[in-house]
Structures are given as structure tokens and as C-alpha cells.
Write a structure and sequence with these properties.
By secondary structure, the chain is mostly helical. The protein folds into 2 domains: 12-141, no CATH class; 183-266. 63% of the residues lie in helices and 1% in strands. It contains 12 helices and 2 strands, in the order ααααββαααααααα. The protein has helices at 12-27, 33-45, 48-58, 63-70, 82-97, 103-110, 116-140, 159-162, 183-202, 208-227, 230-245, 254-266; strands spanning 71-72, 75-76. A two-stranded antiparallel sheet has the order 1-2. β1 (71-72) and β2 form a beta hairpin. The protein is globular and about 50 Å long. The two termini are 27 Å apart.
């Protein structure tokens, strides 16, 4: 039986792909920036090790609170610590890709320059350059035993913090106390992805290699939902969305992908 990692690779080739995707995004003009960010996220979604680095960094990470701290007036200051820096940059890229944050507005507010291309170049130098270096270091790092953390006293969250960006990226939203999906949420997603799987399996116009690639990302997404982790589903959704977008079946799957996108949005993923 396939697992959620079936379409992933652990090889150093994936790290090279990641480096290249970062470099291409950093060198791009603004008009191609969102496309390059999507391609970078797709590389991450296709590598077990990169996936694990993001999942580990974003565990219990409060994106809204950390972003509020990082925005120092009009200057954007990365937090200290490699994992926190990875978490905030990955969360930013995901927010841009999912349109929860507007890329042009963000770079103009925090990396202001003479024109939008210069603003994106400044953003890329600070944000993507840092992300590339930190992820490469983490990819090569040998895990060290960590002492058990001291239990923290739960602090009430003020309403204005909850509504900072009208969403809370890796937390509360529609999830249950464990941070996973409840049965009704999972059931809705499974019905949607299985409808897509059925269409892909029967589509007479798909070439065998394209059908196989689509089936793999669909089934990986399905397994992620069954596994129950919101963070896993978010990352696998990136790969699914981008693979469908460049496939010859994109128009034939339009109704089904619109429905899946709606469910993802309702669950604040």
C-alpha cells in the first residue's frame, strides 16, 4: 500500500532542485515572482526530507503572532533561530501562493524601492537568500537529542491578535484541539479528492505517464487527509494543485478542483 511519501525523494538531487528553484525565484522579475514561488513550493512538496524540515519548523508555530513581531514599522526583521526563520519564510511563501497575503503589497510595504522589480529583488535577497541557506543547513544537519521542553503556562489570546490577518495560519481555524481534522472535515475532503481520482483514472485523453503522475499526487493528498494532519495536507495540497494546473486535464477537472479549493479555503488551510 502506498504511503503519503510515495511520490517523494530523499536524494541530494532534490536539494539541488531546491537550490535552483530558490535561485530562479530570486533572479526573476516581479511579473514571474508568483509562478516561481509556486514552483519552489512544489519542489518542497516533492521531497520527503524538505517536507519534514517544514513540518518540524512549523510545528506549534504561530504565524500571525510571529509575523506581527517581524514587522517593525515598515521594516521586516526575521526572528532569531534557524527553525523560526524557516517557519516564517515558508509560511509567507505559502500565504502568497494561496493569496492570503498580497505579494506586491507586502514587498512595497516592507522592501520599498524605486520600482516593483527592485522591491522584489530586495525581498529575494533577504527572504529567499536566508531561506535557501537555512534549509540547506537543516537538510545536511545531523539531528541532535533535544531536552524535553518545560510546560508553558497557557496564555489567553487577545481578539485583535486572532484577527491579525483574518486567519491564523498554522493553528486554530477550523481544526480540533489536536490540530487535526475531525471526521466531517476529513470526509468532505476525501469525497472531493476521490471524485478527482475517479475522473483521472477514466480520462481517455491522458497519456500514461501524466495519468500516473496525477494519480500519485492525488493519492498522496488522500493519504495525508486520512493521516489527519493539517500541516501534512497543506504541503501535499501544494503539489496536487500545481500538478493539476500544468496537466492537460486542468479544464476537465475545473469543477472538481474548484470544489476542493473551496473546501481548503473553508478549512483555512
Amino acid at each position: 500500500m502506498r504511503t503519503v511519501y510515495d511520490i517523494m525523494s530523499d536524494s541530494d538531487e532534490r536539494l539541488n532542485d531546491f537550490r535552483l528553484a530558490c535561485d530562479e525565484a530570486a533572479a526573476a522579475k516581479f511579473i514571474l515572482a508568483e509562478k516561481k514561488i509556486s514552483e519552489l513550493l512544489q519542489i518542497i512538496a516533492g521531497s520527503k526530507k524538505l517536507f519534514n524540515i517544514m513540518a518540524d519548523a512549523t510545528q506549534n508555530f504561530d504565524f500571525a503572532a510571529e509575523l506581527k513581531k517581524a514587522v517593525n514599522g515598515r521594516e521586516f526583521v526575521l526572528p532569531t533561530g534557524r527553525k523560526k526563520q524557516i517557519a516564517i519564510v515558508f509560511s509567507l511563501l505559502y500565504a502568497f501562493d494561496s493569496k492570503k497575503l498580497d505579494l506586491q503589497e507586502f514587498i512595497h510595504n516592507h522592501f520599498e524601492s524605486e520600482n516593483v522589480n527592485d522591491e522584489f529583488a530586495r525581498f529575494a535577497s533577504v527572504i529567499l537568500g536566508n531561506f535557501r541557506a537555512n534549509v540547506c543547513d537543516e537538510f545536511r544537519a545531523v539531528p541532535e537529542p533535544q531536552p524535553a521542553p518545560e510546560p508553558e503556562e497557557e496564555k489567553p489570546v487577545r481578539e485583535e491578535e486572532k484577527n491579525f490577518f483574518e486567519f491564523n495560519f498554522f493553528s486554530q481555524g477550523a481544526e480540533n484541539e489536536s490540530g487535526d481534522f475531525d471526521k466531517i472535515q476529513a470526509s468532505s475532503l476525501l469525497v472531493s479528492i476521490r471524485e478527482i481520482i475517479g475522473i483521472v483514472a477514466r480520462d481517455p485523453e491522458l497519456m500514461p505517464t501524466e495519468r500516473e503522475e496525477l494519480m500519485l499526487v492525488c493519492e498522496a493528498f488522500e493519504k495525508a487527509v486520512e493521516y489527519g494532519s493539517r500541516e501534512t495536507v497543506k504541503i501535499m495540497y501544494i503539489g496536487l494543485k500545481n500538478t493539476i494546473a500544468v496537466s492537460s486535464a486542468v479544464r476537465r477537472l475545473e469543477i472538481q478542483t474548484d470544489n476542493l479549493n473551496r473546501l481548503i479555503k473553508e478549512l483555512q488551510l
